[in-house]
Amino acid sequence: MAHRSTFRTLRNKDYTRMPWKNGGGETVEIAVFPEGAALADFDWRVSMATVASDGPFSIFPGIDRTLSILDGEGMTLFIEDREPILLTDKSAPLPFPADAATSATLVGGPITDLNIMTRRGILSHDVERVTVDDTFEIAVQGQTTLVLCASGALGLEVADESAALGERDCLILGTEKGKLTLSGKGLCYIIRIA
Questions:
Q1: How far lies 108's CA from each of 51, 52, 74, 93, 125, in Å?
Q2: Using CA atoms, how far apart are residues 179 and 173, in angstroms rounded to an integer?
Q3: pLDDT in tens, 156-188
Q4: Structural domain boundaries of the chain?
Q5: What CATH code is assigned to 125-193?
């Protein structure tokens, strides 16, 4: 019987590129579920986008999103019913409803953001920004877990299997429980989808 791997490694060079829903830029889709789902019918989606000018965000009805800045000087977000918030590459990931009217003003030139979205009422998500300097352990609690290497290079070990992530590569773990060990030097985002 063939051994089934507990994870899947996605490489930056293989990601799918597509126009924004509102046509205002380009998105790099890292992973989506169900696989191959369109923007109107995904349960969860992880993507990166380059924002090169000020303007409105696409509206996604019934979706919750979390935004992080991967590079660039940052942007000020104007989210309906909230005070403006400055988001930089040092900020904690910012959760907000993807169906709230939202626009952004760039601080000083283009940025690249990391965008996690889940369908409200079906799934929820949590995003953690982690700096790895030597080793870092994560308890995997039985939900889908993704690790995106934002910068640097990381080694990963889980259930006697190992992988290496370069910049912007991503690892997807299934719903097994256990321990994930990260090693090396880098900045990563740990995304848990429940």
A1: 11, 10, 7, 20, 30
A2: 11
A3: 998 888 999 999 999 999 877 788 999 999 999
A4: 10-119, 125-193
A5: 2.60.120.10
All residues at 6 or more sequence positions from 152 whose CB lies less than 8 Å from its CB, including other chains: 132, 167, 184, 185, 186, 187
pTM of the model: 0.92
Cβ atoms of 102 and 67 within 8 Å: the answer is no
Candidate CATH numbers 3.40.50.620, 3.30.428.10, 2.60.120.10, 3.40.50.2000; the one for domain 10-119: 2.60.120.10
Phi-psi region of 23 (alpha: psi -120 to 50; beta: other; left: phi over 0): left
Q: Do domains 10-119 and 125-193 have the same CATH topology?
A: yes
DSSP 13: G
Altogether, the residues listed in the chain come to a count of 194
Highest mean pLDDT among 31-40, 66-75, 170-179: 66-75
- Percent share of the chain, pLDDT over 70: 94
Residues forming beta bridges with residue 111, ordered by sequence position = 51
Given pLDDT bands bounded at 50, 70 and 90, which one contains residue 18? Answer: confident
Tokens 């994870």 identify what position? Answer: 7
Q: How many Å is the maximal CA-CA distance in the chain?
A: 57
Mean predicted confidence (pLDDT) in 124-143: 92
35: which residues sit within 8 A by CB, 6+ positions away? none
